[in-house]
Amino acid sequence: MSELSFIKMHGLGNDFVVVDARGRDVALDSARVRAIAERRLGVGCDQLLEIRAPQSAKADAFMRIWNADGGEVAACGNGARCVAAFLMSESGSSEAVIETAAGLLRAEAAGAGRVAVDMGEARTGWDEIPLAREMDTLALDLALGELSAPVAVNMGNPHAVFFVDAADAVDLAALGPELESDALFPERANIGVAEVIGDGQIRLRVWERGVGLTKACGTGACAALVAAARRGLTGRAATVTLDGGALEIEWLEDGHVRMTGPVATSFMGMLL
Questions:
Q1: Residue 77 Cα distances to 11, 41, 81, angstroms
Q2: β strands within the chain, DSSP E
Q3: Which of 4, 65, 180, 241 fits a 20 to 30 Å CA distance from 208?
């Protein structure tokens, strides 16, 4: 395999290997991604983010997203903020537009090492999640252990958000894998357990499909706010606190969801 430079970045501990594939031949496949993502034998990451030349004239770059298990997904909120920070540092601009399989994401610098990104429209139709059969997405017919009746939201990827009294008390490591792969979700799903602390405050933990327990999940935070607002548990803006820190989420009147939070660069390296 040829040498491949990378940057290790993270958003609230949700960590990424970022590879700039513009203008060079980069050979990535599921097996190589799994090897890179392996935390003992590789670099270690939740996702590998591959930056490519955009197809849209409106975008600065295309972001290809690989989960740690080698599967590709269409959206990654914290990853989008990291790639936006990379692109803005490169261009000297305070804005960046990222093309993804889920559409165009518009990002801007928000000061103090923070980046805000418009994650697009939250989708709530049963066939938009997607689900295997028609169902009320405000209360799915799904239960396991102490978890039941989640809210389903698609933020470029499918999420099921369970509301609980104490998010930290849930054994999500045990329940997450089975719920992720339930037959109700033909594309699998990210599983969140959310505790509404008060209007404008949500505690969230996420089992991410293809990754497992993660310190932070940007699309999961967006889904949790949308789910809470749909249930009438909070307003259309909240601070969502994950294991790795807090994100500011706002469900705008046009249906789009705006996420703001910090990004950081850990180190640079070379893959052999």
A1: 9, 26, 7
A2: 4-11, 14-20, 47-52, 61-67, 72-73, 95-100, 103-111, 114-121, 143-144, 147-148, 151-154, 158-163, 190-198, 201-208, 212-214, 237-242, 245-251, 256-262, 264-271
A3: 4
* pLDDT tens digits along 183-226: 999 999 999 999 999 889 999 999 999 999 999 999 999 999 99
Centre a 10 Å sphere on the Cβ of residue 165 and count the other Cβ atoms it contains: 9
Assess if residue 118 is contained within a domain. no
Residue ranges making up the domain that contains 153: 123-254
Is the residue at 54 inside a domain? yes
User: What is the token pair recorded at 222?
Assistant: 């967006």
Element (H, E) at 122: none
Residues 107 and 129 in one domain: no
**pLDDT for 27:** 87
CB 21 within 8 A of CB 51: yes
The yes-or-no answer on residue 222 being catalytic is: no
- Domain of 89: which CATH number? 3.10.310.10
- Establish whether 76 is a catalytic residue: yes
Beta strand ranges found along 150-199 (DSSP E): 151-154, 158-163, 190-198
